[in-house]
Design goal:
Helix content is 46%, strand content 14%. The chain is an alpha/beta fold. The chain has a seven-stranded parallel beta sheet, with helices on both faces. α4 links the parallel β4 and β5. It is globular, with a radius of gyration of 18 Å. 45% of the residues are buried.
Amino acid sequence: MSQNIMSGLGGQRVIVTAGAGGIGEATVRLLHAEGCRIALCDVSDEALGRIGSELPGITTLRADVSDEGDVARFFEAALSALGGLDALVNNAGIAGPTGGVEDISVADWRRCLDIGLTGQFLCARLAVPHIKAAGGGAIVNMSSSAGRHGYAYRTPYAAAKWGVVGFTQSLAKELGPSNIRVNAVLPGIVEGPRMDGVIRDRAERLDLSFDEMKAQYLQTVSLRRMVTPQDVAASIAFLMSDAGRNLSAMSFNVDGNVETL
């Protein structure tokens, strides 16, 4: 008898950060279709308004995950709407600056780590007591292929994403006895405007055309293709589902096998 590998998602109460665009939006749409109850935040009022009008029943709020006050206000509203919490998707992050280490400003370094790493801590510390109260659940933290490779000219981003892997491994050990599984998802080269911007910035740094730089990126991927936001969303949903009930402390690569960066 066949089994739905996404079983167990229906009715889950889920918080998704940066959920109104890119991977976050794809995740929200998939989880919504599977019957999850969702609260999401983002920093784009326009994107929040659009997804809120298209998906009935979700809760949306503007919040910057690097701001402790914003996170506290978002969680208060989200938990009030959801009535509890079963899962957290720590998706928010930024590309950060491209440049040599001597050229990157301290402010740009801090902003990249504040959003991509500290933001996950700020959300997890508020989510965990409620997931414990629910009897357990799942936390999925967004890392990157840059969380397992060195990444020249993108040191803040790589540092943040390596930090996410360490944060995930530590939380998995800490929270496992409370029946909370914690995993990191590591996307590679993801189709979309954010990746286009990364390629443009790196091409400029290396004095290459956009197409030349894109071709170089794809040469480092065994499958020679980008992944889509929907590919990443499916992996997140799998880790939250009954099929992922014994998966924890994983660094789940969704990248076509990125060999190097």
